[in-house]
Amino acid sequence: MSQCVALTGSTTGIGYAMAEAFARDGASLVINSHLSDDGGAAARLGQLTECHFVQADLSTVAGAQGFVAAAREQLGRLDTLVNNAGTYLDTNFDDLTEAVFDRTFNLNVKGYLFASQAFVKGLAPGQENPSIICTGSTNSLAAEKNSVVYDTSKGAVLMLVRNLAVTLAERGIRVNGIGPGIVETPLSAKGLATPGVRPALERQIPLGRIGVPDEIGGAAVFLASPAARYITGQMLYVDGGILANQMSWEPVS
Ligand code: NAD
Known about the structure:
By secondary structure, the protein is of the alpha/beta class.
């Protein structure tokens, strides 16, 4: 039986690539954005599998609950929820505002929690291999200068994954995370376009390059699959070696 998968924030970037990987694996999909699907993501995925688009703002509890309910209605049931919709709004530390904090946490943390709650409440007793996947980041573990709000939100995602894994294990629900490193998407585009940034980053990534969204999708398919049935509470970092790296003694030329 093919999996029924709902993915938040999945019309572009990493979410779209995960959706495409699930589609190629034969899953039926519901994708999402707070905006309309002007780029035709659902139509493109619809050439591979059954795919529906549900517009909903995942930064509100009502939006998160509404998305999960609508997704379940479209597919009849949900086996996997991918919490992926996230944002990065940090400015210099001195210029941070309450709005930056609230908007970041509402989407990156609150949306994940209440979408997960709605997903769990709608599972049928004995449903096979249900699982939740949350997109964290290498920033769940390692800090970046002038990124305190985003980093704190992604640190929260790590504990959300661990807590929900422990809380939901007795119901047979697995909860894992994926921690991308630096990936070429609309979210990272502006930073990567800043002169000098790309080579500076590439020098520090052991695999020597920025990741592409396609390189994240396979990890999501694996974590949702029966092959991962004994894996819960883990964050799988897909980062080209960033977190494994120590400071380098190679002199700067
Ligand atoms: P992106 O901006 O390309 O995609 C984000 C998606 O979320 C889009 O479909 C967008 O429409 C949607 N979205 C935005 N606000 C939303 C809202 N309020 N409600 C519903 N949907 C909304 O970003 P991305 O780089 O693909 O990031 C996806 C996830 O990966 C985020 O959680 C991000 O923090 C994480 N991440 C990204 C990188 C990177 O380098 N790009 C690295 C680590 C982690």
